[in-house]
Amino acid sequence: MTVDSSRPVVPPALHQTSQPPEKVLHSANAGVIVERVAQIAAGQSGTARALAREAAEFANDKHPGLVTVFVYDETFGVKDRIHWLIHFHSLEDYERLLHMGGAQDFRDGVLGGFVAHQRAREWEASFVPGSVQETMMFPHRWGMFGTATQKMAQDPAMSPLDTAHEGPWFEVLPAAHQTSVAPESLLNTATAGVVMHRTVDFSYEFRAEARLFARTVTENTNLNSGGQASAFVFEEAFGKMERMHFLIHLQSLSTMYALMGIDARTDPSSPRATYMQDWVSPEKGGGRWDRMIVEGGGRDSALTPQFWGG
User: Fold this and answer.
1) Which of 59, 64, 113, 49 minimizes the C-alpha distance to 86?
2) Is the dihedral angle over the CA atoms 97, 103, 108, 114 positive or is it negative?
3) Cβ–Cβ < 8 Å for 60, 84
């Protein structure tokens, strides 16, 4: 029997919510993503996963269109590590949710308030103390963190500033704006069979060059993967400076072979030249992409949508 590798073994995360598609937020249309990570305590696998699902379902059902939460298991990394990807339109919506929850949510976060109110004992027993961490990410847009140009300031059509606000106010656009591929042809955290989360620490000296490289590499994936993969670039907020996040959405685990094939192509139109060219200007000493990356500053995690039917 031939296995159809185009179909994910585990249903995509969209199956985890009953929200109508037009109200589902995901990595392509969200303006803010918060990744919450927690380590399951020994012997608590079933209870912890049930709590993870319960917290996500509570947020999705109570706040449709305002927040969408998906639950993933870390694969080929740390055993029994749970990831929640919490999607918002904006920081204003994040604050709005905290106000809705009251003082408890200001301390414990969007999901933590619900857990602390209703399932505190089970939560404390299910996860390793001190293992719960959150990372906030913004989709990269030209103009942020060292990529602003004089042309952006002079041309209102290019400016990332929102003129509806008094004073300078940066308008963060969803990640779908990073690519020329049509939104309906993009995979995202709701539709991917596997999400590869890549973190890379870049040198502050080359912050502008690094972002140009990051956007070029991800667009190469989008344009050459034939719809089997989609990649977006995110900036870490309130964390380590110059740490960038790549969410690489795969149709299935075997899509890795397609990505490896793209990198291995040697034909004239292949994106291989991206890795061969100089990204650092001669004024800064020149150099390829590897000069911009902090030694040992890269890490990949594979996230599989948690299958709620099992």
Assistant:
1) 59
2) negative
3) no
Torsion sign, CA atoms 188, 226, 140, 142? negative
Helix (H/G/I), strand (E/B), else coil: 199:
strand
Joined together, the tokens standing for residue 196 give 């590869």
Spell 106-125 as b/e; 16+ CB within 10 A means b: eebbbbbbbbbeebeebbee
At residue 301, φ and ψ (nearest 5 deg) are -130, 140
DSSP state of 200: E
Q: Specify the pTM.
A: 0.91
Residue 138 to residues 31, 115, 165: CA-CA distances in angstroms? Answer: 6, 26, 20
> pLDDT digit of tens for each residue in the chain (310 aa)?
344 555 556 799 999 999 998 999 999 999 999 999 999 999 999 999 999 998 899 889 888 999 999 999 999 989 999 999 999 999 999 988 887 765 556 566 777 666 666 778 888 899 999 998 999 999 999 888 867 666 666 677 777 777 777 778 788 999 999 999 999 999 999 999 999 999 999 999 999 999 999 999 999 999 999 999 999 999 999 999 999 999 999 999 999 999 999 999 888 778 888 888 999 999 999 999 999 999 999 999 999 999 876 4
**How far from 175 is each of 26, 32, 161, 200, 275, CA to CA, in Å?**
10, 10, 17, 18, 23
Residues in Cβ contact with 238 at an 8 Å cutoff, skipping those fewer than 6 apart: 136
Place of tokens 């400016």: 159
Q: How far apart are CA 113 and CA 132, in angstroms?
A: 14
* Contact criterion met (CB below 8 Å) for 192 and 249: yes
Length of the chain in terms of residues written: 310
Nearest to 203 by CA among 309, 102, 280: 280
Report the C-alpha dihedral over residues 120, 124, 127, 130, rounded to 10 degrees: 110
